[in-house]
Amino acid sequence: MSSSETVATAAEGKYGQGGVPPSGAMERFLSYDVEAFEVPGGREENWRFTPMKRLRGLHDGTATFDGTAAIEVAAGDGSADGVTVETVGRDDARIGKGGVPADRVAAQAWSAFREATVVTLDGTPEPVTITLNGPGTGATAVAHLQIRTTPHAQATVVVEGRGSGALADNIEFVVADGSKLVVVVTEEWADDAVHVSGQHIALGRDATIVATSIAFGGDLVRVSPTVNYTAPGGSAELFGLGFADAGQHLEQRLLVDHSTPNCSSNVLYKNALQGEEGVTDAHTVWIGDVLIRAAAEQTETFEFNRNLVLTAHARADSVPNLEIETGEIAGAGHASATGRFDDEQLFYLQSRGIPEDVARRLVVRGFFGEILNRIPIVELRERLEAAVEAELAVTGV
Question: Would you say residue 360 lies in a domain?
Answer without folding.
Answer: no
